[in-house]
Every structure is written in C-alpha cells, then in structure tokens.
Design brief:
By secondary structure, this protein is mostly helical. It is built from 4 helices and no strands. Helix 2 crosses helix 4. GO terms for molecular function: lipid binding. Residues 7-82 form the Bifunctional inhibitor/plant lipid transfer protein/seed storage helical domain. This is Non-specific lipid-transfer protein.
C-alpha cells in the first residue's frame, strides 16, 4: 500500500511536521486497519518498506501518528513486534 509514500520526506528529515498529504495517508491507514489481522499485516508491510529505506529517522517514524493527530495503534518502526498487536 502507498498510504505512507508522501511521508518519506518527513521520515528522512526527522524534524518539523509531516505534510497534509502524509497525514491523509496516515488517516487512510487507520481506516484500513480495523481488525487485529489488518493491523498486523500493515505493521509487517511498514517494517518491510522500512528495511528497504535506510535513511528513515526512527524517532520521526514513531512520532508520525501523533504529529498527524491520528490514534493509529500500529507502530511505525523497523523493529516492531507486529505479532504483539491486538
């Protein structure tokens, strides 16, 4: 899924605020992940993409939902334990 594609500049910078397009993607991800299974799948997808993009700032990634004002309940991290999501 490309919900977070517009977030890459913010995730690379590691500071400031994400763009409106990025936050729209975060909100879309929230809407698409209502079940535990969906949340775990999204978490695994985020981890896989994060592993391919080495310049992502982990602090920026973990703060993304809060900065967008979204209660995502999915960690945005390369090291998340996706199976612990319920």
């Amino acid at each position: 899924d490309t919900s977070l594609a517009f977030c890459i500049p913010f995730l690379a910078r590691g500071g400031g605020f994400p763009s409106p397009a990025c936050c729209l993607g975060v909100r879309n991800l929230q809407v698409l992940t209502l079940t535990t299974e969906d949340k775990r799948a999204a978490c695994e997808c985020i981890k896989a993409v994060g592993a391919r993009i080495p310049f992502i700032n982990e602090d920026a990634a973990s703060s993304l939902p809060q900065k967008c004002g979204v209660d995502l309940n999915i960690p945005i991290s390369r090291t998340a334990d996706c199976q612990s999501i319920n």
